[in-house]
Amino acid sequence: MSKMNLLLTDLVSGVNHVPTNYIWPISDRPNLTEVEKSEGSNLIPVIDLQDLHGPDHLHVIAKIGLACQHHGFFRVKNHGVPETMIENVHRIAREFFRLPESERLKNYSDDPSKTTRLSTSFNVKTDKVSSWRNFLRLHCHPLQNYVHDWPTNPPSFREEVAEYCTSVRGLTLRLLGAISESLGLDRDYVSGQLGSHGQHMAMNYYPPCPEPELTYGLPGHTDPNLITILLQDDVPGLQVSHKGKWVAVNPIPNTFIINIGDQMQVISNDRYKSVLHRAVVNSDRERISIPTFYCPSPDAVIGSAPELVDDEDRRPAVYKKFTYQEYYDKFWNRGFATECCLDMFKV
How much is the pLDDT for 335? Predict the structure, then answer.
């Protein structure tokens, strides 16, 4: 393995200093002492989905709309994904990353077109500075097209992760309906723009880092997909940009963090925001996060909903139409550049 792939070895346990290819320029470092806590900022609204299909339906829809508009992030509780299923996927992820290196590396690839792959950093072919993470990326919809490529070790991996993916997809579709309604659109509008739909997930592993102030688990970025359903373990690491400052979003048991992706910002014609966020690391504990990325199929054509465009009312379309494949290719090849990838598709 090359030095770029250091984190895929077990050498990390003996590293006392961050290798030079993980050290960010001083001006771009996390500045961890300046990060605010989310508890006092009301940054991440908590939305109870228990009444999404009950008498308080319109109230829940309104809360989701306000969260998408003003925060770009929100938490959900009473989401319908069984707690045992959440515990199982956390366990299976930990077991995978604790396998012997030789077993884990059976899944390694730096080819982003592979639908199941273990890799490190963000894009090992183009990253100028590496990120302090390993990840196992899985495509998971339709399941029957992909599950045969998933790891077979741990032995229950395929069965338990498949159950989790199916349950999270159900949650995602409920949220998409609610977000459509919150925009004043037909409940099935957003879902209908996604072609045959796509669903990926990642198991992100952030090892303890001897000098966390010098590097990132992942630097600041927006998500290129439609919506992300994030499951965290009990170790903090997620930070969200809010009013020009970074705010730590600490885990709350049995909740998911939902964030708006770039495609939803386009469909909403900039009413809803895809917000910068990042992952930081710590010196004491490993961290695992499991995001599910819901996205259009590659050939789906994305544009602003016509109902949200009105040239006479000074609400012209902000973005050109494009296929999701066009968008994702630009996002992947440019990496985490300073400007948002959305800017490249504005009218």
Answer: 63
Is-cis flag, bond preceding 142, omega within 30? yes
Report the C-alpha gap between 80 and 180 in whole angstroms: 20
Contact criterion met (CB below 8 Å) for 179 and 61: no
Q: What is the pLDDT of residue 124?
A: 73
Q: In the structure, how many helices (H) and strands (E) does the chain have?
A: 8, 15
With contact defined as beta carbons under 8 Å apart, do 263 and 82 qualify? no
**Cβ atoms 123, 196 nearer than 8 A:** no
Token pair 């001083």 is found at 26
Residue 180: what residue type?
A: S
Question: Which of 205, 201, 203 has the alpha carbon at shortest distance from 168?
Answer: 201
CB burial readout 159-171, b (16+ within 10 A) else e = ebbbbbbebbbeb
Give pLDDT, residue 59.
96
Q: Which of 94-108, 289-303, 321-335 ranks highest by mean pLDDT? A: 289-303
User: Rg for the chain (alpha carbons), in Å?
Assistant: 20
